[in-house]
Design brief:
The chain is an alpha+beta fold. 32% of the residues lie in helices and 21% in strands. The chain has 3 domains: 29-89, no CATH class; 137-237, no CATH class; 251-381, no CATH class.
């Protein structure tokens, strides 16, 4: 092809077909951090306030958690100080009083509800046995799934994932792991969801078991099996951070649920008594001296569950849970030898399954649609 012909083709290239697009250069970790902070500053400039954890706006919630994570990470905070033209990263003075702490709650998580959210009656959820039993058969492409099972087992050993009670069929979806009868299983495929004859959402699933078998269970059939002898597997630490739009090295705090091991009849007579609290560290470290701490009723405790959240958010999640279970709060003083020993303001008479479900609803941004009903001892849809 002659040079003249080539030049003519370039000149006549009206649609830019001969233009070569430059390949995008991947952002470095520092560039991603700066871009994420620039997004936060853009929000502040547009709305004239810092982003808040907002149950009705997942994007604003992500920005709020990202800002809290940056402030909690001294290295990231120092790296961004030069570009912080709005003073968002200035280290705040500690509150001088409880009143000042409450006044600083810009997210409104400590506010009283607008109405009595507990004045509602619902029938308890019933578990209907599955009408169809799907047969298990060898999985022909198990080699494709085996690495997933090995990774999940490694995550469980390293506590990057945890086992939780199964409480809601809504947690069953493609890509989720569960344990049934001691066997790890994976929901590999999910068909179209429809209402069954009982008015429940149902779908045909392809379920792969760690022992190399598979089954085409219905969603409600799997739920019935998991209610009986199953557990759900939480998302991995990195997956949770990614969903929040946070970096893998984000410092994490803990929201925990405890059970008292006290032998005092004042405590042992209270069924389903749990403490909901938070700490910047692990629940085990926080409760090392529980027997000498009136916060823990001056008795040893058992850690029922721990939930990781970005550091700086833990107190807001704790406050949200305390408000959700306000009707079940143990509003009394414990006595020892005739003297007041401890005020049980963080202790609630509520089944652990309800607490675990509330955590799920917070993570899925659906908590505002639900409330705790003491009569059925579970989370129910809010009226109205």
């Amino acid at each position: 092809m002659s040079e003249d012909t080539l030049l003519h083709m370039i000149e006549e290239d009206k649609f830019g077909l001969l233009k070569v697009q430059a390949k995008a250069i991947p952002l470095s970790a520092d560039e991603r951090l700066a871009a994420g902070f620039a997004e936060i500053m853009g929000f502040v400039e547009e709305h004239d306030r810092v982003p808040r954890v907002n149950p009705s706006d997942m994007q604003e919630s992500k920005l709020a958690m990202r800002l809290a994570a940056i402030i909690a990470n001294d290295g990231q905070r120092q790296a961004l100080l030069e570009v912080d033209g709005l003073g968002l990263l200035k280290e705040p003075e500690p509150p001088a009083s409880l009143e000042e702490l409450i006044a600083s709650d810009s997210g409104g998580l400590l506010d009283e509800p607008d109405s009595d959210i507990f004045d509602v009656k619902h029938v308890p959820r019933s578990v209907t046995p599955a009408k169809e039993i799907a047969r298990r058969k060898p999985c022909p492409d198990f080699d494709d799934f085996e690495p997933l099972f090995k990774q999940v087992q490694a995550d469980l050993r390293a506590r990057r994932r945890q086992l939780r009670p199964f409480t809601n069929p809504k947690s069953i979806s493609k890509g989720r792991f569960f344990v049934q009868g001691g066997v790890l299983l994976y929901v590999a495929e999910e068909g179209r969801r429809d209402l069954d004859s009982g008015g429940r959402t149902n779908a045909r699933l392809r379920v792969i078991f760690e022992n190399g078998m598979e089954s085409d269970l219905l969603l409600q059939s799997l739920a019935a099996n998991l209610y009986k002898d199953g557990r759900r597997v939480t998302e991995s630490h990195n997956e949770t951070l990614q969903a929040m739009g946070l970096e893998p090295d984000t410092p994490m705090a803990t929201v925990y649920v405890l059970r008292s091991l006290s032998e005092d009849p004042q405590v042992t007579d209270l069924e389903d008594l749990h403490k909901i609290g938070c700490t910047k560290y692990s629940a085990g470290k926080r409760t090392e001296d529980a027997a000498n701490d009136t916060t823990f009723l001056a008795a040893p405790v058992e850690v029922v569950a721990e939930y990781e959240v970005p550091r700086g958010v833990e107190q807001k999640v704790e406050a949200m849970l305390h408000r959700v279970f306000g009707a079940a709060r143990l509003d009394i003083w414990f006595e020892k030898r005739g003297k007041n020993m401890a005020e049980a303001r963080e202790w609630f008479i509520v089944p652990f399954a309800a607490i675990d479900e509330a955590i799920d609803l917070i993570q899925s941004n659906a908590i505002t649609d639900f409330e705790y009903n003491p009569e059925v001892q579970g989370m129910v849809l809010r009226s109205g």
